[in-house]
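Cast an eye over my tokenised protein here and flag anything odd:

===
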Amino acid sequence: MSQWSQVQQLEIKFLEQVDQFYDDNFPMEIRHLLAQWIESQDWEAAANNEAMAMILLQNLVIQVDEQLDRVSQEKNLLLIHNLKRVRKLLQGKYHGNPMHIAVIISNCLREERRILAAASMPVQGPLEKSLQNSVVSERQRNVEHKVSAIKNSAQMTDQDVKYLEDLQEEFDFRYKTIQSLEQNDKNSALIKQEMLALQAMLNTLDYKRKEVLSKIGRVIHEIDMLMSNMLTEELLDWKRRQQIACIGGPLHGGLDQLQNCFTLLAESLFQVRRQLEKLDELLTRLTYDGDPIPVQRPQLLEKVNFLLYNLFRNSFVVERQPCMPTHPQRPMVLKTLIQFTVKLRLLIKLPELNYQIRVKATIDNNRRFVLCGTHVKAMNMDESANGSLSVEFRHLQPKEMKTSAGSKGNEGPHMVTEELHSISFETQVCLYGLTINLETSSLPVVMISNVSQLPNAWASIIWYNLSTNDPQNLSFFNNPPAATLSQLLEVLSWQFSSYVGRGLNSEQLNMLAEKLMGQQVSYNDYQLSWAKFCKEHLPGKSFTFWVWLEAILDLIKKHILPLWIDGYVMGFVSKEKERILLKDKTPGTFLLRFSESNLGGITFTWVDQLENGKYVTFHSVEPYNKGRLAALPFADILRDYKVIMADNVPENPLKYLYPDIPKDKAFGKHYSCQPNEVSKPSDGGVKGYVPSVFIPVSKILNDSTEPHSPSDLLPMSPSVYAVLREHLSPTAIETAVSCKLSHS
């Protein structure tokens, strides 16, 4: 079943989450019509390879054209219209930046997988629950409503200022007319009546000036209150959601909504500023005793400028955190002399600023590292598909500086995995007589000099962003705080859902909790130390919990990904638990679990019944690691696995995947070819040779219920075995195998 088919079967609350991240940048119609084709492409790789992204974009347009031809024959007018719009979008917005559409589609597919994983969980995790708080959603709606109301108020005040200007022009005309009369004419009754009328107009002008100033003051106050409270909270929430998304959590939306709010507020403030400038202009033409403009205007203008400074400073954000294209799911880990990308956005989108803001990137001020490559670029609205005012640095490289002694700085493991740095950005905005210096920084990054240091560096990034919402605590690991075990387990599940397409269920998480704590615990409020997670070796092992888990992620990604996504790998189950699960099952029932003693190993255990039929026995095969799985796909191993027991002919003991799924039904679609038939020398192959296929074979002694030594798994082809049977008896074959084992 395709991923999109699974999504369509979700409950309505999960479908609503899916609906949130499909928009005009990547319409849902295309996701639906091209579901299988989209899922068969490597969008993640294309997101970091421009040539590959361009090919995929061109193929996507071809796929849309084919759908357009189909629906044109069906005369589906609405769908024809939508597909033409999508084709125009793809050819227009993304032609100059094909990697952007690859990023969008990759993120959508990843978020679908995360939602599917969340839907399979019995309860929502504490972190994700906090991010989807209904109070937060209500605040978002309130912010948008208030921003709209402020914009309307500013526009209404514009009309009041225009009325005031017209009134003053009329007063000025009538006053100058009287002033131009001869002295004798001024004493006439008609003129005296006109003077009274002018006094009344002046009173009205005074009232209207006070009224306009009062309305401007209210607009400024509303903007101030909104910026100080709800908008600041919205921005902090977005930054927190970004932190969580960086470590595998739900994709963080809402930046476009924030941009709309920031832009409307900036436009309103500049509108108020123009209104104050107009009042100053009116003041130069007319003033009087008790005139409110010279008293109130300077204070209001100062407040407007102050709000504009703060609004611009808060609007300068890191939209996409630093990330190496080679490791898109490990952001904020940077390797020296390897390029990384980072994207910034100014949430105040004004056409006057297009290509007018030059951003400079630097690394923190300890002089340990410098940035090589293009580190000054102009923000523009052309490179982003949504037209935001942004800049993306794509060719930055961190380089470690040499010390005065001529050698590089300390590259020990402490520096590599726990020393935090930040990438800083600065620019200057000059607009309407204002000059505003802007600064922002990335979330803390970890520098490594060798890719082997990546797992521990990533553990540091996880721990930091899980434990704090402080964006710049570079001394965090001087005294790292403990983390709530329930939140850590949720984040660990995200590692699996984001990296290998399927999260962990409650039973799997319970096993991890027991492995971390050494016993069965109620982990809701349990606090786990950083040392326990990443520095201390597991009991009786030569590696830490995190190294063990990271090796499993690597194993899944490279060798058993389809089986994991299908949910056929139980994986995290202890030896004791697996025997409890299997003991009452049909002989030949097996399950797949990750090795607890071998890094990056997977094994299978099956249940068998002794000849007397009263007792069961369990057999666990030696764990397969990436070296073996690189030579033979795991699904083929399960299909072709053979066991030699005493004098019996080799047979496959694996019949049913736990609990009762026939093996071929579970894994048949993943077999590389049809089950191997025993071949004869004349059956094809290279002339003069017998075609061969490697198969795993184990020999189990009658009195053993445990797996034998690692040498028990011997590669043997069906053809070779057939030839041996033609010349040797089963007893002779067993003797030869036993002799081989005794000398291994």
Q: What stands out?
A: Confidence is low (pLDDT under 50) at residues 406-415, 676-684, 703-720, 735-744. The chain is about 50% helix and 15% strand.
